[in-house]
Structure to design on (464 residues):
């Protein structure tokens, strides 16, 4: 789950980010413009630097083709430009044609650079063992202080330690692809990037890829252009494992997007969101009236709706994977991977099912947790946000299933529920009072050519 251009700035993840309207978007025009700087950076944690509304010292770099023209991503004509590829080797004439369903560059392990890319004096590469508490704390602190925040410094993403370990340690993960940059003298972590394995199904073809995420550089080092070096080094290390393609998301517009989605936000705890300055009650309305608008059911309507258990995992996996086959790009999850990503974990991921009389899983919904800290607020420490993950309804409408999911999110203490308009999510967004965000989330495939750009409802992929 990922965001490739995530943060030489503090701008990236694809969770949702940098500039979107909240569900109560009936503010005055001037107030909306001010709030838009805040809302998506908190409520949609991944479209990070969309429209420049999130602090981004590397925004200029990311928005130019100076770096990306050297990478195997589609530029204007569909081919990766530049004279040198990510491995430091010249682009060869044997590169495949740019029709869909193939890599943009043919690469081999043997042809991959063997030495790490050089870092500025005083810094060194480090492999991050997040199974060790001290190392996990270092990653948490770096992301908490330097990943994504709004322009007014009111809200800041706060990935929990259990969430981070879950996000970067799926089955088959390679610890060598949890990459850090440390200060040589102090050992302090100053930058990081991660890659995790995931076979993707792209337009009917299974492709071994990695998901890139958590690209972050300490604010004091943003002038040293470490982000491109981190990207090139993680690419080199991935290539040495025999994998040559990747997927990632970003709010910034880079060459070669295969699809574009938009975040929608659904208020749950209106009073708290008003208290922290995330939104306000529209003129002429009362808090009580608006709270009534955002009321959710106390108990689920779907018969047998409950939290998913271990005995449900295989049935839910079959249901979800059969559903995802309808989309042009989706993760080809194994049973073990599905268990890792979707079996409920406290304050990390929630999943719910309903079953038939014979125990067959018929409906499934899920969300993951991404809170944001409220900087210097006297009463509230965090805004708690749920993000829609994978949802399948077969015996009830998707609208009803997600209404039940909203009820569970409220019971779980969530303040806002976010969802992308991918897959069939459009079926419930309007009816359940989701407000459209203002920034787009772009989907990218590194070194893989598709037949063409995909609509949001053709995307069967949600990256953390």
């Amino acid at each position: 789950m990922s965001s490739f251009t995530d943060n030489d700035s503090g701008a990236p993840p694809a969770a949702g980010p940098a500039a979107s309207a909240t569900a109560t978007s009936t503010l005055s025009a001037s107030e909306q413009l001010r709030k838009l700087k805040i809302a998506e950076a908190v409520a949609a944690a991944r479209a990070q630097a969309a429209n420049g509304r999130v602090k981004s010292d590397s925004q200029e770099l990311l928005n130019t083709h100076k770096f990306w023209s050297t990478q195997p991503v589609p530029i204007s004509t569909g081919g990766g430009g530049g004279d040198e590829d990510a491995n430091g080797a010249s682009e060869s004439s044997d590169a495949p044609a740019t029709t869909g369903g193939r890599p943009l560059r043919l690469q081999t392990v043997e042809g991959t650079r063997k030495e790490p890319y050089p870092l500025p004096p005083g810094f060194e590469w480090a492999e991050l063992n997040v199974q060790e508490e001290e190392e996990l704390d270092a990653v948490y602190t770096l992301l908490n202080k330097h990943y994504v925040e709004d322009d007014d410094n009111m809200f800041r993403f706060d990935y929990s330690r259990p969430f981070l370990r879950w996000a970067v340690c799926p089955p088959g993960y390679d610890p060598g692809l949890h990459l850090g940059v440390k200060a040589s003298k102090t050992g302090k972590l100053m930058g990081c990037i991660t890659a995790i394995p995931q076979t993707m199904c792209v337009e009917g073809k299974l492709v071994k890829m990695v998901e890139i995420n958590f690209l972050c550089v300490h604010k004091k080092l943003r002038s040293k252009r470490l982000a491109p070096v981190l990207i090139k080094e993680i690419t080199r290390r991935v290539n040495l494992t025999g994998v040559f393609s990747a997927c990632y998301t970003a709010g910034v517009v880079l060459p070669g997007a295969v699809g574009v989605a938009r975040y929608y936000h659904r208020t749950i705890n209106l009073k708290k969101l008003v208290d922290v300055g995330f939104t306000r009650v529209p003129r002429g309305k009362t808090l009580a009236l608006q709270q009534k608008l955002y009321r959710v059911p106390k108990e689920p309507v779907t018969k047998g709706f409950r939290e998913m258990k271990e005995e449900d995992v295989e049935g839910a996996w079959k249901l979800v994977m059969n559903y995802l086959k309808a989309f042009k790009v989706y993760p080809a999850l194994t049973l073990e991977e599905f268990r890792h990503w979707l079996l409920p974990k406290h304050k990390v991921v929630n999943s719910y099912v309903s079953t038939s009389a014979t125990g067959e899983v018929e409906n499934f919904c899920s969300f993951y947790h991404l809170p944001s800290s409220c900087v210097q607020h006297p009463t509230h420490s965090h805004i708690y946000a749920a993000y829609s993950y994978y949802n399948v309804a077969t015996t009830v409408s998707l609208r009803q299933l997600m209404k039940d999911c909203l009820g569970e999110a409220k019971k779980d203490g969530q303040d806002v529920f976010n969802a992308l308009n991918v897959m069939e999510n459009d079926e419930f967004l309007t009816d359940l009072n989701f407000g459209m965000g203002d920034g787009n989330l772009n989907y990218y495939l590194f070194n893989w050519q598709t037949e063409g750009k995909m609509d949001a409802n053709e995307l069967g992929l949600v990256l953390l």
